[in-house]
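Encode chain A's predicted structure.
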Amino acid sequence: MQNYREIVDIAVKAIDSKRGEDIQVIKVADITVLTDYFVIATASSNTQLKAIADEVEYKLSQAGYEPHHVEGERSDWICLDYIGVVVHILHQSQRGFYQIERLWEDGEKVDIDNLIIKE
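Encoded structure for chain A:
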């Protein structure tokens, strides 16, 4: 079994290292069978969006985790599916439009302050 919390931690740090914004982690294991965690982040440009997704994939691959599926590599919303953890990286316009964290507001917000570098 994979360590989903480790995947979350690595993904959050990778997103933060590429200056992803408004990073949120929602534990949804108790309310859906789709996954255990959603990691959601915003990118301010398509270039940054791709750089964040590449960094998440790279860092997780270094730790021995490969995505089950990747969706949207040429769009404003990239989804990296690691089975128990699904990472959503959205362009600002998409994040505001879809508001996916509102769909999962019954989930448990995970405190990630210890993973993010404060400026």
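The mean pLDDT is 93.
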